[in-house]
Amino acid sequence: MDIAPLAGHPALVMDGDRKGIAVADLHIGMEKELHDIGISIPSQTPLLIERMHGILDSASPDYIVIIGDLKNSVDRISKQEYREIPRFIEALLDRDMEIHFFPGNHDGLLDRLIPRRKKGDRSPEDRVHLGGPRGGSIEGVGFFHGHTWPDSEVISQGTIVAGHNHPNISFRDALGTRMSEPCWLRARFQPEMLGMKYPDIDMDVEREMILMPSFTPYGSGTAINEERSFLGPLFKGNYLDMENADIYLLDGAFLGNLKDLRPLAKNIG
Predict the structure, then answer these.
(1) pLDDT at 226
(2) 103-149: per-residue pLDDT in tens?
C-alpha cells in the first residue's frame, strides 16, 4: 500500500486495494470553550465541512478514518456539539464511502452523536464504524488516537498512524519572535523496547509511526523541536526513535531530522 500525505492538507492518503483518507483532531465545538474564556468567534464547522469536501473531491476515497478528537468536550456534549457534529457526519454520509471513528480523549459520549440511519441509504452497520479507544487496523494500517497504549492489532502493522499531539515545528528569529507551522512526523520503532511491551508481535517487521497534524484550524499544538514531552504513553520512553524522526511541512517540504531542528526553536542570529 502507498501511504503519503495529501500535499497542502493535514490528511493522509492510503492507496491500496481501496483508497482511504485519514484525518485527526478536528475538535468540533472548540468555539464554546473559547467563548467561555472571553474569545468569540463564529462556528468553524461549515469551514471544516467545506475543507473536507475539497479533500474528498481531490482524493475520491472509498473510506475515511477519523483518528480521534472529532469533538472538543472531554466527558460531556455541549449544545454546539449536539447540533454540529451530526451535521458534519451527515455531510460525510452524503458521499458514498465508509466512515471509521477511533475515539480520542475528547470523544466521550461520541456514540450518541453518530446518526443511526440516513433515509434511503444503507444502514450505519454498513457505512459507519465506531472502534475502541485503543484503535484498530484497516487494510493493513494501524490507527489509534495516541492517548492510550494501542491495541496489539494496531502495533502488529508495519505502519501505525496517530494524532493527539498536534505537531508543530517552531522557529525563532533574531529578535526572538516565535513562529510555528503544523508538520508531519515519521519515526521508526525501537524493536527491543517495543518487544518488551508487546512480546507476542513479530519483531522482524519494520515499523514506523506517522504522527498527524491536527485538522482544526486553531488551537494549541506541540512544538516538537522544543524541549517538551510528547503526549501519550507510546511517545514516552524509547519505543520510538524520535530524535531521528523525519519532519515534513504540509506542503511536502522535508525539513530534516528532529534532532537537527532543535536549534530552530532558539533565537537565530
Answers:
(1) 85
(2) 999 999 999 998 765 455 545 447 899 999 999 999 999 999 999 99
What are residue 21's DSSP bridge partners? 13, 64
pLDDT beneath 50: ranges in the chain? 118, 122, 124-125, 268-269
The pLDDT assigned to 120 comes to 53
Residue that the C-alpha cell 440516513 belongs to = 118
What integer pLDDT is reported at residue 269 of this predicted model? 41
Full 3-state SS string of 211-259 = ECCCCCCCCCCEECCCCCCCCCHHHCCCCECCCCCEEEECCCCEEEEHH
Q: Of 229, 259, 219, which is closest to residue 243 (Cα–Cα)? A: 259
Pairing label, strands 98-101, 128-130: parallel
- Please return the burial class of 171, using the count of CB atoms within 10 Å of its CB with bins 0-12, 13-18 and 19+: middle
- The rounded Cα 140 to chain-centroid distance in angstroms is 18
Partner residues linked to 101 by β-bridges? 66, 130
Range of the domain at 34: 2-265
Q: How far is CA 81 from CA 69, 74, 85, 149, in A?
A: 12, 11, 5, 27
Burial class, 62, CB count within 10 angstroms (exposed 0-12 / middle 13-18 / buried 19+): middle
Answering whether pTM is above 0.85, one says: yes
Pairing of strands 254-257, 246-249: antiparallel
For the chain, the domain total comes to 1
Query: Which pairing describes strands 246-249 and 222-223: parallel, antiparallel, or unpaired?
Result: unpaired
